């Protein structure tokens, strides 16, 4: 009796698709769905070409095609890997599309007034074309800077207490209120600041920049506390214990060991908190107000900020509508660039102060 040997299929040594097969499949699927939607658009003359639908169904067709082709050539395991990779890449692209769309739209529309006049003049006595947002840029930097000065020490010291000292009901109470503050609407912070200063100064019409900074600090503090707390928890306990073993007191261990080790993450958290509040409009409308003139004094008179500038330019358009819309888009672009610049500066600071590891 003769036995016939059957070759064993090994998925790890199965065939392999050529290098650019996936790319060509994707382009082919886009071509197919694009042609189908083109025929549909030609059949129904009244409708415009649906590029979003063509791209979406092209991706769906690609996921099916890459599974079938890979299953036939490379085996079940590799086909499943390619399918999951395609799905993850699709999900990432879908999540990235709104960001790309917003950035592209703001850059294209904001470039119309992105000129020196926009950055060296205010809106005082301007009712048509021209003018700029210098007063709003200065106001944004002053109010956000003051809010950072208020929030960072309070938030950082609170997180140090919770991680290094906090035990019992007080720590649990602080954690609970921080969680509650994290989710409060921004307009509530503005109403709180307005009510506080209206009662303190007995002036129901009070509007000034420092009140806006206090409102923003209410929104910043919980973010600083949460981010700093998580960074401090990541510091290994062995570092603390080694410092205590050398006789170093606890406060000095925190200053010299714990904080320098976690400084990069803490700075990143602070930048996140600044980005969280720098675009807020509602609380600043309530307590800081708006003006067309320059104001460098946080403690006197109304102060304009970039978010409020964008809102007022778009909401209160004059006779020359396009001039107001152009200024609004350029203000939004400027705000995005300020946030991006702050993040770059934060990365450089974090890299400079991060502990150096010997190699």
Descriptive terms for the model:
359 residues; mainly alpha; MetI-like fold; 2 domains; membrane
Describe the structure.
This protein is about 70% helix and about 0% strand. It is mainly alpha-helical. It has helices spanning about 20-45, 50-75, 75-110, 115-120, 135-165, 170-180, 185-200, 210-235, 235-245, 250-275, 280-285, 305-315, 320-355. The protein has two domains: about 15-110, no CATH class; about 120-355, MetI-like fold, CATH 1.10.3720. Part of the binding-protein-dependent transport system for phosphate; probably responsible for the translocation of the substrate across the membrane. Belongs to the binding-protein-dependent transport system permease family. CysTW subfamily. It is found in: Cell membrane. It is a multi-pass membrane protein. InterPro entries: MetI-like, MetI-like_sf, Phosphate_PstA, Phosphate_transprt_permease.
How would you concisely characterize the structure shown here?
This protein has 359 residues and is mostly helical.
Derived from helix and strand composition plus strand pairing, the structural class reads mainly alpha
Q: Can you give the helix content as a percent range?
A: over 70%
Mean pLDDT: 86
CATH superfamily descriptor of the largest domain: MetI-like
Q: How many domains, as an integer?
A: 2
Largest sheet entry:
none
CATH architecture of the largest domain: Orthogonal Bundle
Low-confidence stretches: none
* Count of DSSP H/I helices: 13
Give the CATH class of the largest domain: Mainly Alpha
The proportion of strand residues reads: under 5%
By CATH, the topology of the largest domain is MetI-like fold
What gyration radius follows from the Cα positions, in whole Å?
29 Å
Intertermini distance: 68 Å
SSE string: HHHHHHHHHHHHH
Strand element count:
0
| Shape estimate | flat
């Amino acid at each position: 009796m003769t036995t016939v040997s059957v070759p064993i299929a090994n998925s790890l040594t199965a065939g392999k698709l050529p290098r650019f097969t996936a790319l060509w499949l994707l382009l082919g699927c886009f071509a197919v769905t694009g042609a189908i939607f083109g025929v549909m658009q030609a059949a129904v003359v009244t409708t415009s070409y649906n590029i979003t639908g063509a791209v979406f169904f092209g991706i769906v067709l690609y996921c099916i095609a890459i599974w079938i082709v890979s299953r036939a050539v490379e085996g079940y395991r590799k086909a499943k890997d390619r399918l999951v990779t395609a799905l993850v890449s699709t999900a990432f692209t879908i999540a990235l599309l709104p960001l790309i769309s917003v950035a592209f739209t703001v850059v294209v529309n904001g470039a119309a007034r992105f000129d020196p006049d926009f950055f060296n003049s205010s809106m005082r006595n301007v009712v048509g074309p021209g003018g700029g947002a210098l007063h709003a840029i200065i106001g944004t930097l002053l109010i956000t800077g003051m809010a950072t000065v208020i929030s960072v020490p309070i938030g950082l010291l609170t997180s140090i207490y919770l991680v290094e000292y906090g035990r019992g009901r007080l720590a649990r109470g602080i954690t609970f209120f921080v969680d509650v503050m994290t989710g409060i609407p921004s307009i509530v912070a503005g109403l709180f600041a307005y009510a506080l200063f209206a009662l303190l100064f007995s002036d129901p019409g009070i509007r000034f920049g420092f009140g806006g900074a206090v409102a923003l600090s209410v929104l910043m503090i919980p973010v600083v506390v949460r981010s700093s707390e998580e960074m401090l928890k990541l510091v290994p306990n062995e570092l603390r214990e080694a410092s205590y073993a050398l006789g170093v007191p606890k406060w000095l261990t925190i200053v010299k060991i714990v904080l320098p080790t976690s400084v990069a993450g803490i700075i990143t958290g602070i930048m996140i908190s600044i980005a969280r509040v720098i675009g807020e409009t509602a609380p600043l409308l309530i307590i800081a107000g708006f003006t067309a003139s320059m104001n460098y004094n946080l403690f006197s008179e109304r102060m304009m900020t970039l978010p409020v500038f964008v809102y007022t330019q778009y909401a209160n358009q004059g006779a020359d509508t396009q001039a107001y819309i152009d200024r609004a888009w350029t203000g939004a672009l400027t705000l995005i660039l300020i946030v991006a610049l702050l993040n770059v500066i934060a990365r450089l600071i974090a890299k400079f102060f991060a502990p150096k590891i010997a190699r």
